[in-house]
C-alpha cells in the first residue's frame, strides 16, 4: 500500500489507495466503507490524484507501464489515457495558463499533453539526465512548472507559447543528491521544500534559486525530539495553509510516525513532534493523508486526524484527541482504527 489521495479535501467524500497489485481501491474516508476498485495498470502505480472541482468524479493515475489513466469513480471504468511510449511515468500535474496542460515525468523527459484532445504538445529532453521524480505546476502561478529529478536538479519552466528546453527553462537549483519529493509552501507559495532519497531536507526560494535552509542531518534532529526509536525515513512534508507551520513527517521501521515542526527562519531546527501516530502500523509507512485544515463537516464531526498506508498492508484512520468514541463497526481486516483513548498523551492535533 503506497499512495493515498482524497476527494474532496473539504468534505472527504472519497479516498483512493494504490496497492502493490497495480490496483487503485476506493473507500469512504469517514466511514471506511469500500466502494470499488480501478484495474488496468500492468506495472507499479507511482502517483494518483483526483481531478478538480469541474470533474469531481475523475481520478488520475500514472504508472511504470508508461500510461496516465483517468477513471470514473462512479463506474470504476477507464475514461481516457495517454502513453509515453516505452518510458516509465513517475509523476504528473495539471495546469497551464488555461488549465489544459498535463505535464508528466517520463523517464528523464518532461512530456506535455493537451488533456482535452490527448495530443502531445511538447517534450523536454535536455534539462534532466536521470528519472524525473516530481512535476508540479506552481499554485497561483499556473504558467510555471517545477520539475525534480534523480540527477539532483530542480528546474523551473515557463509553459507559455511553444514549450522547449532552450527558451523556457528559467532557473536550475542543484540540490546535489537524488530528489524524492518537493512541494510549495509559505506566503504566495514562494518557498519550496525538498526531501531527498538520502533523507535530507532543504528549503528553497524557487523564484531566485536561493537556499533558505538545509537539514543534512534531518533524521538525527528529528530523532532527538522524542524518546521513541530513531527516525529512519521521511514520508512527506505537510503545510496546512498560509500562516501555518511546515511539518516534516518522519517514521520508524516499526511503523510509528511523527509530525515534526520545521523552523527555517534564523537558526534552522527541527522541533519535537507535535503529533505522534503510534500503534497502528507494524512496518514502514509509505503514505500520509492529513485531514484538511479547512473545516470539513464530515471529517471534523468524526474527529478524524488523517489516514496512513503502510508496507504492512494496513490502512489506518487516526482520530484527534477531542474525537468522539469510535464506531467499532468500521473495523475490518484491511484497516485499523485507533481508539482515541489509546496513546492519547502522545497524539495532539497540530491544526
Automatic annotation (TrEMBL):
Keywords (A to Z) from UniProt: Repeat, WD repeat
UniProt KW Repeat keyword: yes
Keyword Protein transport among record annotations: no
Chain positions of WD repeats: 38-75
Residues annotated as transmembrane: none
InterPro entries: WD40/YVTN_repeat-like_dom_sf, WD40_repeat_dom_sf, WD40_rpt, WDR89
PANTHER family: WD REPEAT-CONTAINING PROTEIN 89 (PTHR22889)
Protein name: Uncharacterized protein
Organism: Citrus unshiu (Satsuma mandarin)
Amino acid at each position: 500500500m503506497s499512495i493515498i489521495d482524497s476527494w474532496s479535501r473539504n468534505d472527504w467524500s472519497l479516498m483512493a489507495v494504490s496497492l502493490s497489485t497495480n490496483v487503485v481501491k476506493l473507500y469512504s474516508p469517514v466511514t471506511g466503507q469500500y466502494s470499488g476498485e480501478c484495474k488496468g495498470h500492468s506495472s507499479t502505480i507511482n502517483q494518483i490524484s483526483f481531478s478538480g472541482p469541474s470533474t469531481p468524479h475523475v481520478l488520475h493515475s500514472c504508472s511504470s507501464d508508461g500510461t496516465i489513466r483517468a477513471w470514473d469513480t462512479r463506474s470504476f471504468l477507464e475514461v481516457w489515457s495517454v502513453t509515453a511510449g516505452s518510458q516509465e511515468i513517475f509523476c504528473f500535474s495539471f495546469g497551464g495558463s488555461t488549465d489544459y496542460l498535463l505535464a508528466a515525468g517520463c523517464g528523464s523527459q518532461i512530456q506535455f499533453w493537451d488533456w482535452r484532445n490527448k495530443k502531445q504538445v511538447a517534450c523536454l529532453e535536455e534539462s534532466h539526465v536521470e528519472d524525473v521524480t516530481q512535476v508540479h505546476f506552481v499554485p497561483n502561478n499556473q504558467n510555471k512548472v517545477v520539475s525534480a529529478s534523480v540527477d539532483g536538479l530542480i528546474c523551473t519552466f515557463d509553459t507559455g507559447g511553444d514549450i522547449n528546453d532552450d527558451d523556457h527553462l528559467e532557473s536550475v537549483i542543484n540540490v546535489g543528491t537524488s530528489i524524492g519529493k518537493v512541494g510549495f509552501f509559505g506566503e504566495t507559495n514562494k518557498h519550496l521544500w525538498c526531501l531527498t532519497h538520502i533523507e535530507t531536507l532543504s528549503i528553497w526560494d524557487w523564484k531566485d534559486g536561493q537556499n533558505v535552509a538545509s537539514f543534512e542531518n534531518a533524521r538525527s534532529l528529528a530523532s532527538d525530539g522524542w524518546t521513541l526509536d530513531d527516525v529512519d525515513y521521511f514520508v512527506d512534508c505537510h503545510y496546512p495553509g498560509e500562516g501555518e507551520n511546515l511539518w516534516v513527517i518522519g517514521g520508524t521501521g516499526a511503523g510509528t510516525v511523527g509530525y515534526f515542526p520545521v523552523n527555517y527562519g534564523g537558526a534552522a531546527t527541527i522541533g519535537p513532534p507535535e503529533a505522534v501516530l503510534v500503534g497502528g502500523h507494524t512496518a514502514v509507512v509509505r503514505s500520509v493523508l492529513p485531514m484538511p485544515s479547512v473545516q470539513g463537516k464530515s471529517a471534523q464531526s468524526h474527529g478524524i486526524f488523517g489516514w496512513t498506508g503502510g508496507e504492512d498492508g494496513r490502512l489506518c484512520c487516526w482520530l484527534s484527541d477531542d474525537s468522539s468514541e469510535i464506531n467499532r463497526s468500521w473495523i475490518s481486516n484491511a484497516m485499523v482504527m485507533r481508539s482515541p483513548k489509546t496513546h492519547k498523551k502522545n497524539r495532539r492535533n497540530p491544526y
